[in-house]
Each structure stands twice: as structure tokens, then as C-alpha cells.
């Protein structure tokens, strides 16, 4: 499947565009804002030096020394919040860098200004800007912009998912042993050990494993059929709020943690497991993950 890289937002459709709270209208707002943010990011100074000696200034750490945040993360989240205040005054916003709460507004926006900050820090292209509109704890619209390629991924509940305006559909994978699995790892060393042990046990039972460093782009890759499945523990709400909806609307079986840290029903995968898979392999993938200690990761 090949996509062009010019971002083409969803076209308005009559009655839906007349309702400012319709998921398709919220989708178009998300598309507009993440596209603007991605364009702005491309114009910001790079956080790595030109001599190839590694990251330069404008970088701080959060939960661990490996969990980084750049000045660009803060700049982009501020931009997104300003645009939402203009386009959706009265709505609440929750962001990775500046927090927030649901408040009393009908619609809550969840933003990750740069998902894949370590990749961005080192000059790798796999990072994204993510924005989702949420109602009653469920994402109803969302968009993910991929600054390095210009791709624009989006979805609205019940209206399907697209990349650059082209409909998305998950792969037709039907055998777990021939399936490509995406994953990721925690910033905490002790948890990485458990994650690595789980993946090591699963690796002989799948075609191969990929780790890109962006949960949002991994979920979009499942939606596009570029990955057959994705499994990671420890992702935050803003990592997946938009992209999990995109994968769902593309036909994936999606399992998320509770949106604000609540624990989903015990299914043996662990409370904070994030999973998306093409339907024919989903049950087998979950069983394999349980067999190799997913519940204890």
C-alpha cells in the first residue's frame, strides 16, 4: 500500500459540517491543528548538533534520565492549546507536558505534542503530533501528523480512518507465525527487563518484531497494514488517544488501558497493556503474550 505524502484533510459533508460537535467536524479540527503543529515543528531549531556528536541544548528529563523532553515539545503543546482555545473555546485540554483535567466541558482534547521525542532528539524520522477529541472517556475523533513525511492520519468514530485522505484497512494476516509485530519499551530499566523477556519468548512464534519508538505511528502502521499487530505496556493516554481510534476504525482489534489510569477488566495482559491486531490473529497473539508473562510486565 503506497500513500502520497501531501496531507489532505477530510472533506466536509453537508449536514455533518453544520454541527460543530459532530465527530467529523472534530476530526477536521484535529487534522487542521496537528498539520499546523507539524509544519511549525519543521521550522524549529533541531535539538541535535550538526557535528554528529549527539543531542545539544534545549533538552530536559522527566521520569528517568532516558525519558526526555525538549523545548519543542513545550512549544508545540502551547501552539495546540492556543489553537484549541480559538477554535473550541470552553473545551478542556489534557497534554503530556502541561497536564490538565477533564473539567465540565462536553469535549476533552488529549494532545501529545511529540510522540517519539527520543527519535526527534536524535534526528530519526519516526515521531508524530497527536490530538484526539474525547467524550465520556472515549475517543470520538483524532488525527496524527508525521512531520518527517508529511503524512496525515485521522479517524472519526463510525466514519473510518484515512491516511492523506485514502481509506485505511488492516492487513489480511491470518497466521501468527507469519505476522509482523511492533512493540516498545519502558523508560524504567527494571521494567525493560520484563518487557524484553516477554518479547524474547514471543519472537520465535512470529515473523519478526519491529520497534520504531512511537506508539502513535505503530498504531497507525497497524491501521495501514504495515504491521500486523502491536503490543506495548506502559503507554500513556496521550500516546494512543488518537491512534487507537484510527486503528479501530481501520478494522483492528484494539485493547487499551483505562483512559485516565483506570484498570480495564482482567484479561491476563496486564493493566496497562496496549494492543492492536488484525482480527484473525488477535486471539492467538493475546494467548502468546499471556504465555510469556504479559500479566507481570
UniProtKB/TrEMBL annotation:
It catalyses: a myo-inositol phosphate + H2O = myo-inositol + phosphate. Pfam families: Inositol_P (PF00459). Its EC number is 3.1.3.25. Its cofactor is Mg(2+). Keywords: Hydrolase, Magnesium, Metal-binding. Residues 1-23, 44-67 are annotated as: Disordered. It is an enzyme of class 3 (hydrolase). Belongs to the inositol monophosphatase superfamily. This is Inositol-1-monophosphatase.
